[in-house]
Amino acid sequence: MNNPVKTSRLFAVVITLLLIYCAAGWAQNRPEWKPSPGDTLTSYRVLGDLRVYFAIYAPKATEVLLSGSDLPGLDRGAKMNKREDGVWEITVGPIPPGAYRYNFNIDGLAVIDPRNPLTSQSNMNTWSLFYTGGSEWMDARDVPRGAIAEVTYFSKSLNRFRRMHVYTPPGYESGKGKYPVFYLLHGAWDCDDSWTSVGRAGFIIDNLLAAKKARPMIIVMPAGHTGPFLSRPSTDATRPQVDEFSEDFINDVMPWVDNHYRVLKGRNHRAMAGLSMGGGQTLNIGLMHLNKFAYLGVFSAGIFGINGKGGPEWEARNKPYLTDARAKQGLKLLWLATGVDDFLVETSRATVEFLKKYDFNPIYKETDGAHTWLKWRDYLYEFAPMLF
Predict the structure, then answer these.
(1) DSSP assignment string, 71-125
(2) What is the pLDDT of residues 300-318, one digit of tens each?
(3) Whose CA is closest to 70, among 125, 110, 114, 129?
(4) What is the pLDDT of residues 342-369, one digit of tens each?
(5) In this structure, what is the dihedral angle of CA atoms 312, 318, 320, 322, given to the nearest 10 degrees?
């Protein structure tokens, strides 16, 4: 009688030999295969001296540019050099520590980096993203970490679903306490993802909390655009076109946050700040609703049109709020900061003088730098410890 164990082993050996034979025959007859330079390409490398090397495989391209709005000298693009193997490359910098957006322009077409999964969203497009370390307050460090959620809510004001990002401090999920809330707004062309990706807001606040330089808080980052770029067109050309966002923010965003998060209620526990367009929105919403906010921050912005023909109309329209002495008494902080090379620096200066005329007490800081994320991250780092 046959031994079933021996039979099974013999069968396995025969099958293995057949597979080896077939594989050898396929290897002899198949065409030679070699990886292309693009298959193993490292598309960017941060070098030791804070220079950054970029590369992309585009063998049929005739011109490739590297672009990045915050990369020094690259707002209009820099030509990359083509190697014989079809890889285009360039080294830029040194650049300061921080997060940076970039893309490639291949024969006129802007594309994100196909070899880098890190991205940062904007209002109408996506950027590739990289980070250069060396900033203790902005780097990812071994400290307690908060959580950032992408939240979808229904806006009754706009009759559609919208999205915002919400940061909760370390320990929020396992605790029962309530927290103050900080509404943080992005600028024109950006979106609710921007402060958490290129803005590094979560890392900045985590590091501040770990150093006991700020109070634990919930940070709400809503989408400031309600359409492709600006909000609903206004018949008043001098009025900032933020009507739809203001309606959504007051009637939908704030109530949704109050109902879904453990937030402390009342103006003393609410702050609002924004950069550029978001700074203008902060002034438009905050000054008109001083009963809701005790802290306001304006980064690289002001009252748009204040130093032009729109100033008198804005002033007349909002005079009842500007002259409300009782509401102003509860405003604990009105903080503005702008770089000396920022194209909105004159708007910021004019706004400060305008606010003083109505007995506000703004704190104004003029820094180096221009209208870039390099400064807005700095401003958040300085502003957040002053809250609550």
Answers:
(1) STT-TT-EEPEEPTTSEEEEEE----SEEEEEEEEETTEEE--TT---EEE-SS-
(2) 999 987 876 667 788 888 8
(3) 129
(4) 999 999 999 999 999 999 999 999 999 9
(5) -80
- 8 Å CB contact between 118 and 128: yes
Pick from 73, 66, 82, 165: which is nearest to 116 by CA?
66
44-132: CATH topology: Immunoglobulin-like (2.60.40)
Residue boundaries of the structural domains of the chain: 44-132, 147-386
Query: Who's near 225: CB < 8 A, 6+ residues apart?
Result: 123, 188, 191, 231, 245
Among the listed residues 19, 193, 73, 49, the one whose alpha carbon sits nearest the alpha carbon of residue 121:
193
Are 71 and 94 in contact by the 8 Å Cβ rule? The answer is no
Per-residue pLDDT of 226-274, as tens digits, reads: 987 644 444 444 444 447 999 999 999 999 999 999 999 999 999 999 9
Instruction: Encode 212-247: b = buried (16+ Cβ within 10 Å), e = exposed.
Output: eebebbbbbbbbbbbeeebbeeeeeeebbbbbbbbb
For 49-104, how does the pLDDT look when each residue is reduced to its tens digit (9 = 90+)?
889 999 999 999 999 999 998 887 787 789 999 999 999 999 998 999 999 999 99
Token duo for residue 144: 């307690």
**147-386: what fold?**
Rossmann fold (3.40.50)
